[in-house]
Amino acid sequence: MKFEPPKENINEAREILITVYEALKERGYNPINQMIGYILSGDPTYVTSYNNARSLVRKLERDELIEELLRSYLENENNEENNRK
User: Fold this and answer.
1) Domain-wise residue ranges, the chain
2) Rounded to an integer, what distance in angstroms lies between the CA atom of residue 4 and that of residue 10?
3) What's the pTM?
4) Nearest C-alpha neighbor of 18 from the set 66, 57, 70, 76
5) Per-residue pLDDT tens digits of the chain, which is 85 residues long
C-alpha cells in the first residue's frame, strides 16, 4: 500500500508547525517539548492559544504532523549528506 497525502496538506502542515513553534517560543515555552507532548498525547493544552496556535494545530491529524516532521528531517539529512560529498 502506498500513502500519498495531497500536496496542499504538506504545505499546510509545514506552515502550521512553524506558526505553532513560533507561538510557543514567544510565550516562553520549550516548543519541541510542548509539540512532542501534543503529538504523543493528543492533548491540545500542550499548545498555547496565543496567535491561534492551538486552533491551527487541531486542524490537522497528528499523523499529518508526524509525516511533515519526518519528511523535513529526512530532506534536511539528505541535503547535508550531499553537501559533504
Assistant:
1) 7-84
2) 10
3) 0.79
4) 57
5) 776 666 656 688 999 999 999 999 999 999 999 999 999 999 999 999 999 999 999 999 999 999 999 999 999 888 877 777 6
